Amino acid sequence: MLLFAIASIAAAQTPVDINLNRLAEAVNAINENQLPRAEELLNSVLATSPNDADALNLLGVVRAKQDRSGEAERLFRRALSSFPSHVSAHVNLAELLLSHNRSVEAMPILLRAHKLAPSRPEINLNLARLYAAKSNYSQAYEHLHLVPPDAFNDEYFILMMRTLVGLKRLEEVSELLRQFHSENAETQAEFATLLTRAGFHEDALNILNAASDTSASFPVLYALGMVNISLKHYDKAEEYLSSALRLKPDEVAVLLALAKLARVTGNIEKALSHLLQARRVAPDSPAVLYDFGVTALQMGLVLDALPVFARLHRDYPREPAYIYALAAAHWTKGEVAETSRLMNNYVALRPEASSGWYLLGAALLRQEKTSDAQKALQRSLSLKEDADTEYLLGASFEKVSNRSAAMDLFRKVLQLRPDHAAAHAALGALYREAGKYAEARLELERAIELDANDLRANYQLGLVYAKLGDIEAAQKMFDRADQLRKSQHEQERVILKLIDEPPPEP
């Protein structure tokens, strides 16, 4: 709880000298944490001057220090009722409300305090913190610029760094970096993490390495892990994150970071193991549930991913990421009608997201709604050039026998991505239909070289070989196509039920 000088306000109220002396003594007592003595002095002032704003404010500070927040709030409000321009009472009341997560109530009080004392650092810092919490970085920036250099503290540096990142004013980060100083390991770690978001990876690493020389604390180890992930130093990242996890074995943020690291390095099973542990610690965390669902879906465990995404969508129905994830799970399960329904909702919320129009187009195409699919895919391409989207658009024209448009699109796909096996196969099939067997053979052989299990390429190449008179080679391709068709038809996905297991029989 903040405590401020009272002389100017007291002089304005023209109290008697004896009360002034008692108030000054009370301030000293509070500073020395002699709360009973301060309370005695303040009550003696209030006995003769029950509306003395300074005494009410200071007694509110005493009550706050005694964890009697209800009484403290009433005293601060009485002080303001007695003297509405009492800046310290404004600040103290706002601080009390903020300490109890009542930021909505604190904001207007701080704004009134700012009008009374626009240069007070603690007022501007508190306002900047509230604006930054609402991602209103422009307002936060204005208040932070009112803080003088001699009042720069740990909170200022973190708030200003977060604000500059939020505003993308990266040209000012270097100056802030030169000004930065802190002896607190947690502040150093958080500042370095924000530096990483701004792209200043090496500077972040320098801060953290210096911090680790004096303190191998959890915040420093965790931040070192995250910075090394950004730098793609995966071995070091795992070393630091594992050390952090040993200090806090149930820390969800570390488990999520280790899961991310495992996914990046291709160890999906290990990622899932970390996420299972995170779910045991924080079963209702949206971040944990989302990462678990994504990882399960990557592993083909659609029956595990689907209920997780359904729960997230139910709890947060307008969160686009959860809509997309649920749609992807339904798509994986082959439920294209539900996929398109969800993706229509998604693109309504995020009309500028090319990936949303792509998945919507894919689902519509699977339902033979070719015209609508083409519109969605063309919208996706207008937002971002992409080989897979071009391929699907080509497939849509192939479906309506517009071979010329389809061939042009498949050629464009291969210009963008020469290793696109499906485009080679589709173009080869169209060449075969046009009687261009030499061109068809080149495309189809390249498709199989890139993806030996492409059923269409194997079958179409058999047809081409037959037309070219190589019956033996044609038969081999037909036999291979039959094997692929049979394995795809008979293959059964084994779903390992990893969550929500029923309890054992008693």
Explain the overall architecture:
- The protein is mainly α and 506 residues long.
- Among the domains are: 1-117, Tetratricopeptide repeat domain (Serine Threonine Protein Phosphatase 5, Tetratricopeptide repeat, Alpha Horseshoe); 182-249, Alpha Horseshoe (Serine Threonine Protein Phosphatase 5, Tetratricopeptide repeat), CATH 1.25.40; 385-500, Tetratricopeptide repeat domain (Serine Threonine Protein Phosphatase 5, Tetratricopeptide repeat), CATH 1.25.40.
- It contains 29 helices and no strands.
- The chain starts with 6 loop residues before the first helix and ends in a 16-residue tail after the last helix.
Percent helix range: over 70%
Strand/helix succession = HHHHHHHHHHHHHHHHHHHHHHHHHHHHH
Structural class: mainly alpha
- The CATH superfamily of the domain at 1-117 appears as Tetratricopeptide repeat domain
The CATH topology name of the domain at 1-117 reads Serine Threonine Protein Phosphatase 5, Tetratricopeptide repeat
Number-wise, the strands total 0
The best one-word shape is: elongated
Beta-strand content estimate: under 5%
CATH level 1 class label of the domain at 1-117: Mainly Alpha
Low-confidence region ranges: 1-15, 490-506
Gap between N and C termini: 56 Å
CATH architecture title of the domain at 1-117: Alpha Horseshoe
Rg: 33 Å
Number of helices: 29
- Biggest β-sheet strands, sense, barrel: none
